Amino acid sequence: MSLSWGAIVCLGLGLVFVIIEMFVPGFGFFGITGGALLLLGIFLAARNVTEGLILTLIIALVLGIALVIILQFMSKGNFKKLPIILNSSTSKEEGYIAVEDLKDLLGQEGEALTDLRPAGAADFDGMRMDVVSDGEYILKGQKVRVASVEGRRVLVKPVKDAGREAEASKSTEPNGDSV
């Protein structure tokens, strides 16, 4: 292996670019360019292609082993407290809640706590929910039924009073005329 000025410059610039990539957020320009310059420097320093490939494989193996050792070392002791390793969790027990699964509300009946024009609030077994009607104006206190749930959006429809429907059907003749 013979080191020429071209090989030294490529290796040096490649190392600098890889270090820049570690500290400067970006899309990988410095990392890719640095890696390419390092490979070019290795091949320029090698006497032939075979020697360049062997050197590249040896360096990749050594760097891989070094990375594993560094990660093992960092997962123990004081390095565990560094901000690059996440030590906290976002569990239900600690009070973190992702989007609730509201699918179990489907078909439930409740009462409109506010006028729904079309958005408002409704009560389902003591649980206050923000709800939306499908464009229909629903008065406060009217019974509603959950028609669909999409994420946090709860769509309700008014519950038709069974007594009223029976009365309405009795008061009309089969041809649709009122009695």
Automatic annotation (TrEMBL):
Pfam families: NfeD, NfeD_membrane. Signal peptide: none annotated. The keyword Lyase does not apply. It is a multi-pass membrane protein. Residues 160-179 are annotated as: Disordered. One of its GO terms (cellular component) is plasma membrane. Residues 104-158 form the NfeD-like C-terminal domain. Keywords: Membrane, Transmembrane, Transmembrane helix. Residues 4-71 form the NfeD integral membrane domain. The chain crosses the membrane at residues 6-24, 29-46, 52-74. Gene3D superfamilies: Nucleic acid-binding proteins (2.40.50.140). It is found in: Membrane. It comes from the Bacteria. This is NfeD-like C-terminal domain-containing protein. Residues 160-170 have a biased composition (Basic and acidic residues). Its main location: membrane. InterPro entries: Membrane_assoc_protease (IPR052165), NA-bd_OB-fold (IPR012340), NfeD-like_C (IPR002810), NfeD_membrane (IPR056739).
